[in-house]
Amino acid sequence: MTRPVPALPWLLLALAPLPALAGRPVIREVSLPQLVSLADAIVVVRASAPFRTAAITLANGCSSEAWRLTIREVVLLGPGAGAGADARQASRLLRPGGSIAILIHPTGLRDCAYRKVHAGGVSFPADRHRASLGRLSRPPQELVVFLSRDQGRWLLASEDAYESLSRLGEIHQAIPRTTSSPPPP
Description:
Elements: H1 7-15, H2 18-21, E1 25-30, H3 32-38, E2 41-47, E3 53-57, E4 63-77, H4 85-93, E5 99-103, H5 106-117, E6 124-129, E7 142-150, E8 153-156, E9 162-163, H6 168-174
Parallel strand pairs: 1-6
Antiparallel strand pairs: 2-4, 2-7, 3-4, 4-5, 7-8, 7-9
């Protein structure tokens, strides 16, 4: 006669791989209209010649790569860009002809920050846009980027938050219009 196996050890074995999954981003694909709603600013940028990247270390010790880009056009400067003095500073930074360093791996920065507080990390939602350009190691000559502002720095609103300049018309259509907003060009 065989002895029944208690359920508890099997349950523990079944749950054993779960700690390895803790602390990972849970990726959510976002569409172009969703990406527009996530962005504090949308700008058309030009890669500087020669193209330069910089490693930036934040106050919490986390680091990321930043692209140094020249702003050609500001498509949208939303309310998330700041209010009062913050908005004035944002509009000075995001002006045609200005140069900006954009942190390009926002999910990695969030993961690093969470691991500083929780040794095992935490699972957190992370957005990724499936850009028509695919994943880039360096930008093309010109592109549209969707930016968020965090602790005074500009970073991509989600992973791969950029689009080809050829989709600028679709981007204009995805921007919600208020009664005082001018129609897209």
